[in-house]
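Notes to self after the Tuesday call (sharing in case useful).
The group wants a holo model before anyone commits to mutagenesis around the pocket. I volunteered. Ligand is zinc ion. Logging inputs and output together so the record is complete.
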Amino acid sequence: MRKRRQESPRRRGSINREFAIVTYGFLLLFLCMAGYFIYFVGYAGEDFIDSPYNPRLSQLSEHIIRGDILAADGTVLATSEVDDAQNETRVYPKGNEYAHIVGFSSNGMSGTELDANFQLLRSHSFFIEKIINELQERKNQGDAVVTSLDTALTDALYVGMANYEGAAVALDPETGKILAMVSKPDFDPNTIAQNWSYYTETGSSVLLNRAIQGQYPPGSTFKILTALEYLNEGGGMEDAFNCSGSYTYGDTTIHCYHNTVHGAQNFEEAFAHSCNSVFAEVGLSLDKSGMARLAKRLLFNRTLPTELKNVKKSSFSLKDADSGLVMRTAIGQGNTLVTPIHMAMIASAIANDGVLMEPSVIDHTQNDGGTLVRRYHPVRYGELFDESEVGILREMMRYVVTNGTGSKLYTDSYTAYGKTGTAEFSDNKSEAHSWFVGFAEQDEKKIAVAIVLERAGSGSEHAVPLARTMFDTYFR
Ligand SMILES: [Zn+2]
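Result:
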């Protein structure tokens, strides 16, 4: 008979302790794995989406319903409808009005659909909801991108542009947030796929976002640069000039608009009246390399600092320019081309004490429950103008409103500043683009705008009233 081995109480205690260690060890491991799973689903997953090198970005749309794009007040600008088979249809409730700024998500993408593609394909839904969706093989709802777009301002701008082709953009100078951006002609993003071949094969320019991709002669809005260079080179606001309606040097004659004779005036008055004769004469006196340095400082021939994609550069050159080209350049004709957003950025920096804030449209992202995911803070580019330049430009641009071509902007409700332009773009002098570049402020609130209406004629007759509509709407 085998003698049953008696375990000592001490040995039994040791086994219990080992058992407890193994049990707690497994429990700890389980908790770690559960924690990692929650962490991955909730947070870490976005790093994969975030990477622009992610080759499987399009596959994400198989798991995530593309998020909504909203205006600042929550108005839905783009959303996805999902059927029982989990097929998505992208819908743009505001149609043509936001076609360029919101863009489209098929056929190569454009606008905010392109700029915020990563954000729209992230999902920060509550993790239990995500797990349930996974189990039921349903897609998770992507985050919503809330833009800085002001619907009242956009409505006013869209209606105000009527049937003119052209573009307008409004920025908040202190943050760089885009308040409104409209380009015409426009299109219905709801039918972009059906009409794609028509747009691309007929050479139509409706898909062009003229606010960021239209390159226009700046006309007299360029006198902001010419004036600044003149004053920086020692010229004065009180310098006396006499306009006879035109100015001739060599074989080039520059005419004032409609051959108006502005007569005796000082430099500030010549700016307010947009006198081409004085600015052609002044242009000849300027240091060409100094003018080129100023243009470079103000971001000509450079990629504009903004989160927006596919923005065209403005171009400026006085290289090998003869006196005729120098004169034409000084009044904003010549070879200079600008984008409306660039001119809005220049106005915005003047309004913001010389500091340029980078234009952006994404204000924040939120999950499907409306909880904030990420706020996109304003980005400071740097100083475009020093303090004395800001003082000079504000005085001159205010004088345009009180005593010049911008008088339709005069009101007691707010203080407006700006420069008009009438830009010829062909040998046919009767055709010209109507420009306004400027800003307005009321207490602490500010707005900067650039407007170009193609073939609309004089800036004071067409672009200025539209600026008035925008300012009135914004400060209402
Ligand atoms: Zn004149």
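Two things stood out.
The chain is about 40% helix and 20% strand.
The chain has a mean pLDDT of 91.
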